[in-house]
Design goal:
66% of the residues lie in helices and 1% in strands. It is mainly α. It has one domain.
Amino acid sequence: MIFPLHAVRPVPDNDRLPGLDLLRSLAILWVMLFHSFLVGGLGADWAWLSRFGWMGVDLFFVLSGFLIGAQVLTPLAEGQGFSWADFYLRRAFRILPAYWVVLALYLLWPAFREATGMEAGWKFALFLVNLDIDYLKNTAFSHAWSLCVEEHFYWLFPMVAVALLRRPALWKFALVCGSLVVAGVLLRAAIWRHGMDTDPEFLRNWFVENLYYPTWTRLDGLLAGIALAVWKTRRPQSWARARRHANLALAAGLLTMALAFWLFCDRVGFVANTLGWPVLSTGLALLVFAGAGRNSLIGRWQIPLVGWLAAISYSLYLVHKAIYHLVQARWGDDLAGSGWLAFAVYGATAVAGGALLHYGVEKPGLALRQRLLRALKANTPAATVQGIS
């Protein structure tokens, strides 16, 4: 079969589901709570919320695997084609404008940095900082590690998807995913064992550098999201039937998350860093499934401001650590130990900074993207485009 490459059906940015918006909003708030350690924490009252806040990044991974996976797989499942230019143009203008502006601030304005040391700019520009970082010395803008994982996913997944769908079979997909999950468990086990044998006190931060940041150890969340996307696009009737039990999936997801919390009580322990990641990703995937429609408790109603917070979540993720630092430099002594007030000031200021970046850079970039996509479509005659057989 010949698929015209220009015929990909895009997923509109404003085609939002309340449940997914809620999860995206919870993810960014959870990450922000976790990173409050940069300003001494927000007090004992918030410790139980902030302790596992790093899991918000894994929730972003599952959401990304599901949404980007569906964007790639839907046209292929419908017998259309995959436009490489369309996909990468969409991803570039979604990610790069705000990212480059924040990177420029980090490089050119040292006072903006939440830490004094920072890796070389080219590592951030090429999205390689998660693979080569001295975490003892250079922690400024280190949260860009997750964007590196996302970018690697964008680079590789479409090629893998197109290759597997030349002769589609679910057993191939299951074999690939299962192999990657098992390989991830074994790889993390080997890294953990070697690290504990050579540096049991974590003096070199090998946990972050070799186990937590690298792309090849953090595939579980993306794979869980991709599995949902494959299910939805390749078995739509089965997906529709299962959606009748979305609230059951929600309950199962919450129970699985409780198990993940228990496994990660020792975040740097062996069990957490072998079995913990697939368990956590499974729980988050169940929550995403529950939110991926309007027939669940979390997907039924549009909560005020949640959609807006979800919309600015990317920009907010980029700047929140630097904003914390700027607020602490100006009012840190006054806010120390003030509980609710510190929570409100740090949070509101970070949200304001994220909104400024969103409306000042991210949205204009998305508007330019739409104009370029229309021009690309108008200048790409269907008859002249080669297909994928």
